[in-house]
Fold this protein.
Amino acid sequence: MTFVKKSEAYLQYLELGAEGLTLPPFAENAMGYLVVYPGEVYCRAPGCPKAKEAYSSLNNLKKHIQSAHSKTYTVHTTSGGAPTIKEQQEAIEWYQKLLEEEEKPELPALPLKKDGTVHIKNMKEMVKGMGVSVPCGECKKRKKTRTCCSSNSQEWCENFDYFAKKDDKGKAKELEESEEESEEEESDDGN
């Protein structure tokens, strides 16, 4: 396991800990066994009261899973020995992916009016604030510059890539009536 323990991603995993990471729940392989990667020290079972505790070894983590979560998970037991190179590579890739997910910036919610359509003026202002051009390249290419950032161009407009489609609660982000009126004035200007 020396490759895993020396990898930068694994060292960051240990440094950030369960408090600093959003650990995904355990997955199962094709045979129905729990996938636990070499070097893991945190329980990823949903709702586990010991999820924030670091176990001293992978073996101790597996023992915890077998005793506390035996009805939910089946852990493949081995006779010991070092993990294979392939297992170590898969583990390093998992740690890297875990950290990449943590580093991704959260996208702002797409500004919508109460009727669920795009609030064009607010979207254009937000996009410009991000340093992105309006109209976008694809809208220019299609000669649809007036509809850039509108619901009509949502299928191709590149500026929609800078927004999440829903807020955290799964509801459209609603804006005040006064903002809707200012958007109507904006569309009358042709922008």
